[in-house]
Design a protein that fits this description.
alpha/beta; 13 strands; 245 residues; 7 helices; disordered N terminus; nine-stranded mixed β-sheet; two-stranded antiparallel ribbon
């Protein structure tokens, strides 16, 4: 008699960097991502799958649709600054060199995931990509706005600061009214897209989390939950992925 096969594991796509890299005898461009992202997804019970920003697609939007068809959730990972041209701004001298291929790929993936109402988590740069994809703008050098380096206190080391959440928000229910987060960013959201709602703030007023209104589960967080104390957030994300599958 035929047997019922077990349900497959939840699949979560992770966007990745394309940067020069050195390993063994090799020194060449590579698609890479800090292992903490995949580890966080796997610890929550899902299978992580990298989504490199490949150039040369004849139809980028169609490629993005094809990519998310095989997934149950999408994580937009951290990384370099979003090209200011994406939100019609001139570059600040302290804004990093644009990664136009990555910007285009991640914005296409975002649109494809939101059309499917797929659970989506934007982390740091990923939150900014999500904001820009929906029509928001960014602050290009946050210390000019808040008067301190609290969001990126030491080069190459994640800082820590508290984030407070709106009463009744889903992230507040998952993480509590306030939590300590791992921080490393010099940019942030300036104008929130109309389709979003701010639900988390740093003590200096910087928006640290927003939700996409009307989506089943779509959030941007400005901190790095894959680095410290992110188990509850990734568990809720993966549970949403399983429920939406």
């Amino acid at each position: 008699m035929p047997t019922t096969s077990p349900a497959r594991a939840v699949r979560v796509g992770l966007t990745s960097y394309r940067e020069p890299a050195v390993w063994g005898v090799w020194n060449e461009p590579a698609d890479l991502l800090p292992a903490s992202y995949a580890d966080a997804v796997a610890a929550a019970g899902a299978v992580p799958m990298l989504l490199p920003a490949v150039s040369g697609f004849a139809d980028l939007d169609r490629a993005a649709v094809t990519a998310v068809e095989g997934l149950d959730g999408l994580v937009l990972s951290g990384g370099p600054d979003v090209d200011p041209a994406r939100y019609e701004a001139a570059p600040d001298p302290r804004t990093g060199a644009p990664r136009t291929e990555r910007d285009a790929w991640e914005i296409a993936l975002t649109a494809a995931a939101l059309r499917r109402d797929m659970p989506l988590l934007g982390v740091c740069r990923g939150m900014q990509v999500l904001a820009v994809a929906l029509g928001g703008t960014l602050v290009q050098h946050l210390p000019d706005e808040v008067g301190s380096e609290v969001h990126c206190p030491t080069v190459g080391v994640h800082g820590r600061h508290p984030v407070s959440f709106a009463p009744g928000s889903r992230l507040g229910a998952v993480l509590g009214t306030q939590t300590e987060v791992a921080t490393y960013h010099h940019q942030g959201v300036d104008t929130l897209p109309a389709a979003t709602k701010a639900i988390g703030w740093a003590p200096d007023g910087t928006v640290e989390a927003f939700e996409v209104c009307g989506a089943a589960w779509a959030f941007g967080v400005q901190w790095h939950p894959e680095v410290h104390d992110g188990q509850a957030l990734f568990a809720d994300f993966v549970a949403a992925c399983a429920g939406q599958r």
